[in-house]
Automatic annotation (TrEMBL):
Keywords: Glycosyltransferase, Transferase
Any single GO CC term annotated in Swiss-Prot or TrEMBL for this entry: membrane
Membrane-spanning parts: none
GO annotation, biological process: carbohydrate metabolic process
A Pfam family annotated for this UniProt entry: Glyco_transf_11
Superkingdom of the source species: Bacteria
GO molecular function: galactoside 2-alpha-L-fucosyltransferase activity
CDD domains the UniProt entry points to: Fut1_Fut2_like (cd11301)
Protein name: Alpha-1,2-fucosyltransferase
Amino acid sequence: MIAFSKLGTLGRLGNQLFQYAFLRTTARRLGVPFYCPPWQGDEIFELNDASERATTCEPMKHRFVEPYANTGFNPHALQIVDETEMQGYFQTPKYFDERSVKQWFRFKPEPVAAVAQKYASLDFANSVGLHLRLGDFVTTFANFFYVATPDYYRKAVERVPHKQNVIVFSDDIAGARAILKDLGRPLVFIEDNAAHEDLYLQTLCRDFICSPSTYSWWGAWLNAYPDKTIIAPAEGLFRPGSPLNNKEFWPPEWPKIKALRGLRDHHFIFTREKKLVHKLRRAIEITKGSFDRK
């Protein structure tokens, strides 16, 4: 048996899909059962894993922790042996078989029935999906992750053939509206759905434009159209120069477009500017406080 006891606690849905795919693929390679606790995917997908998945975890003799700096392909991960507890993100399709994983992640009808009905009149087959991950990419994790520029989205829309509708998905719709205000095309903003419902709708879009996000990745990758066009940021998952890297995140066949402003968005420059701005704001607050006390 192998185990991923923290599956469901390390990241949100996109991360968990990578973790489950790696865990189950590794168990099949070794010919052993796998254990993971209940997670979101149990309710969303036709996993059909009862014959392979243990309901309790036996004591493990070994432990594999993915290197902090590389969430992509690590050859040592392919040397995991039986009775290993694993931990990491495993964010690359190089770890698993496409046909098997797409079978595991088929949506159950019930969890997506309501959202399918809600958007039944929208022609997804002739539309492009567009995802903007904002939220903590703008705040907490901005040193490592990034938000693609409006120019990236403009160029990407020009590259895709199916754009009767530009269907926008985001964790911050107001922020997405501001970034896309000059896109030059009518936009359909998808709002007020659960994460798995938006993921399902993303897979229905004929073409797709990704942000640097695992959620984007799965929305595009689970798309079943054989003639789909998927556009991705050329910089990869992390901000250039970041201590984190993943060179195998995007499938090589997806066209890439530069999504940043060169050196200005490099990790070192960006971080330095943030520190200077913080010091300046702090100095202004201290000075203002001094005047207020007079």
